[in-house]
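Changelog-adjacent note: as of this version, every example in the card shows the full chain rather than a window. The one below runs 70 residues end to end.
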Amino acid sequence: LVKDRSLIAYEQEGLVLCAYTKQQIAVYGVDGILVWKGEMKEGEQQHLSIPVGVYIIQGEQEAVKIVIRK
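Full-length structure tokens:
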């Protein structure tokens, strides 16, 4: 479970993003390639079916790293 002041990200059959504020979010692989980008509304939840790996999630307040294991 990874969270900053406006975003929670966790692993559950892929990646789950939960936004507490309206914001642009981008998900990158550790190789720097953009995997997903979108605007999330306050209270919105997004499930991404992505392969196992390490990802960087860039929110409007900070970037966090998460490992998807299964």
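Structural remarks: The chain is about 0% helix and 60% strand.
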